[in-house]
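Lab notebook page, bench 4
Experiment: in silico fold of construct C2
Operator: M.H.
Input chain length: 473 residues
Purpose: comparison with the prior construct
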Amino acid sequence: MADSTIAAEVEINRKRKEEWSLLLDYYRRQGVSEEQLLERQCRHRFIRLNPRFDARETLELLQKECRNHNQVIKTIANEEYPMLVPWLDAAWGFYALPGDFGLAQSSCFRSGRVYGQDVSSGAAVAALLTNQLDIEQTCQGIRVDRTATTQQSSCISKPNLRVLDLCCAPGLKLCAMADYLRTNNTASQLIGVDISEGRTNICVRVIQKYQIDLETSGQQLSVGSSSETDTVDGNTKSDICIQLCCNDGTTYLQDEAAAYNLVFDSQVAAEELLHCGKRKRMNKSAKARQAKLLREQKNLHFDNDKNLLLFDRVLVDAECSTDGSIKHMQKRFSKKQHQDQSNNHRRGSLIASLTDKAELEALIALQKGLAANGFRLLAPGGSMVYSTCSLSEQQNEGIVRWLLETYGNAKLVPIIIDASPSNGIRQGSLSGTLRFLPGPQATNGADDESSVSMTNSLVGGGFFLAKIAKTNA
């Protein structure tokens, strides 16, 4: 072996150790141990029930699938999968499955009965559309039973609600919004925006599967209707219109002349389904017809005087370093090691956005741009949720503090989840915000399985959540 090759391998190993040391140090500061980062398999994965299928039937099917997956499915607490997530209102339909459960092979998943969605993102939608997590609402001396169906009573209802999801990929939160608003008979327009064409196409497929296609959405389309409707026991439910735009979230709707780039409209998709029937693939004429209908869709965000119509709710689930997802980071590190071994030296650092000052500043600038534009598009009296799947304070509390300091009409709405801090849900360094630590949180520094309650570890990935109101001032 040539001396130059040996020297290159030595340098790769040195950089790998240095990067790993930086990564471990970062996670230790966030309260995540090396054992969690490396050795612990994800104990649970999470699903959300599609409310347009019978819940009891879906749960029975899932229970059978879990039993087939692993005959030993009893938890330490003697509970059986699927396990209801106890800290979020039961009406949202979040359940835990075994961490190694193959969702892609599940008939419930393939048939559209369940979404594969992390429960922490469900908390973001709950905070956005309801007052369930607001401290002023929950701290009235009344104990809230999270296992009861209280969603209807805490709904913040408004006719013709306008909701913006500024970083919408992969579309699961949009579906959760649509399901919730449909259940509560709230006619709404939901707008999803993402800068990436590839991610936007993923959103289209997800929404098409769960909101449009007859076989997998659980809905019925009224013949002769041009809009998406549900028919249950002969009663027509409220209309929900979902639109997807491929745009830069930092500049979206800055003026009427800006490119709208509408790539999906649920009403257009419903019309196409009625026209073509159950055919899965569109031919050229169908694609051309749909593209023409999308071009003809009126830009509903400006009135006749070209004044911008603002949104009642805005979700900014901002692009971030994604370090809150331990499983995702493990995959990235494994991929980086493989690239190093393949002598692919042109790849950047695994954690550049965490350790490189210039890259971190660029990421924070992007997050500020998203938060600022989201707040600009929010109507007075409306609410905005800012969230990330990062543990970094600079990307989380730092952005919220900046927003509150920059805009005098921005007010933090304190939120809380009635759960023990030992389960990984706690207040952020900015009081009134929430942090979700990834994985089960062992008590007293113990590392054995018995030190963690199974039901108390139903948290999901690392996540940050803040709610901001726009006052009339």
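Observations: The chain has a mean pLDDT of 79. The chain is about 35% helix and 15% strand.
Next step: discuss at group meeting.
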